Structures are given as structure tokens and as C-alpha cells.
Amino acid sequence: MNGVASSLTNRIFLAGAFLVLTSIGLAIYRVNVSVAAQAEADLRAGLTDAASLLSEFTTRQFDDFVVKGSLIADLPDLKGAAATGHAPTVQPIAEDYQQRIGADMFVVVGTANLVLARAGRVRPGDGEIAAMLEACRRAPDFSTFWPVGNGVIHAAALPMEAGTVGTLLVGFSLDGDAAARMKTVAQSEIAFVSAGRVIASTLSIGAGDLADLRRETGVFTRALADDSYIGRVQPLGTTADAPLAVVLRSRTEHLRFLPRLRWQIAITGLAAVAAATVVGYLIARTVTRPLRALSATMGEMATTGDLTRPVPAAGRWDDED
Description:
321 residues; 5-stranded antiparallel β-sheet; rod-shaped; 7 helices; alpha+beta
């Protein structure tokens, strides 16, 4: 039998190398699969936690906002000024309280929907205010999401003296500043989507990238801003047309360590295979070297007829048998 497998040393060496390579290769594959699966599971679990945290934060924030607005609506100076129906009297009081609670919209409406004061950076017209008030009054919690300009404002209507002297309409915008605050809380990228368009986002994304999210019911994957993201939709209201907060985390960033880890595992595996191969070759030689020496001695005995030739002495690491 000729060829590589004709040598006993080579056969032992190849068999050992094959077993080592197979076992280490399978171990590397299993480690890669397990680490990647665990990293993906951690990413999804973190996204779910972030979405829950965002929901709690937005609910608590709006509740606190409404409580502060209710307290202001019950203050005697604001109610007394509104009862006069005199806009110049109400305006400075409204501006003072708007700054105290940090409302983006602070509107005092008198009887018969007469607008007495506007304060804050969002100042809708009389028609918008009347429509917003009507939407708030129809809602069970007296609040509504209303499109204003290029954004959306979350407004609440708070009666003063049970509505006999007027109504306080307060609200805050879903804009870039609100998204940045929620990003800090959730440790995730945030986007607000309303009426099929992105109205604010902490990412530079296209207008249509997140337009179809109402069909998403769980974790989804989307390519955004040259990266792969997983996301989760968090409705901001109970109605079908309420805006959505989209929580996003970068798969590219979170799984960036995997290629480096795979290279480290591969290099370690190759080093282990190389070491095992050398050891296997040396072990094979401890078996075959004394056999070759014995065969050579017997060949000489057969050629010369000298049966007194001594058997070769075994080396230190040779097989004793």
C-alpha cells in the first residue's frame, strides 16, 4: 500500500488530527451559535424593558403635568382674571404660570370659547383651540393629541370653577426635545410617528422609514441610517389615530463584538489544533520508531544469518511493549 496512508505513523497522526479538528470545530461552532443567540436575546429583552420604561415615564409625566395644571386652574388669581373676560388682565398671569410648569401650550379660554390668553411656544389659532377643546371634552380623560404645524401636541382641558368661568388648555409637544429626554430615560433611540410620518426622532431617518408601523405588534427589524435596528412600537394613546413612540436599538452596535470574538475563538482553535497535531505526531512516533528499528534488525538478521544480534534498546519515550 503506497501513499500517505501507507505509513503507520501517518495513519495514527491523521486519525488523531481528524478527531482533534472535528471536536474543536464543533466546540467553536456551538460557542459561536450560543453567544450570538444570547446576545440577540439580551438585545430583545433590553428593548422590551426600555419600551415598558418609556410607557411608564410618559404616563407619569403627563399625569404630573395634568396635576400641576389642575392646581393652577384652581388658583384664585387665574380664576378671578378669567371671570372678568378681559384678555389683557389674563395674559400676564397666564405667561407667569406657563413658565412655572414649562408647558409648550398654555391657553385660557373663557365662556363661549373666547380665547383670553395664549402663552408658550405653541400658540394655535382660535379655530384650532375650539376644535382641540371639543376633542378633549369628548375624550374620557379630557385629553387629546392634536397636530400643530409640523408636530403634535398632547393637550388636556382643565375646567375652572367647573367650567363656569372658563377652561385652561395646557399641553406639551412631541418634538426633538421630548425625544431626547425619553432617549435618556430608555437608553434607546426614540422616534415619534403620527399620521404615517415621523414627526421627531433622535436618529437621522427618512420620512417613510417608519411610516407603516401600525401593523407591527412585536419586535421588528429595520435598516435605518446605515445600521440594522430592532424596534418596538409603544402607542401613546388609546385611540386608533394616537401617535406612536418607537423604541429603537442598534443591532449593529450591540453585536459588534461578535466578529472579533469569532476571530479570537478561531485563532485559539487553530492554535489548539496545531498543538494537538504536534503532540499527536510525537506520540505516533513513540509507537512506530521502535517498530521500524526492530524490523530493520530482523532484516539484517535474515540477511546475515547472525541470530545473536541484540534487539535495539527502547528510547525514553518509546512504547515499552
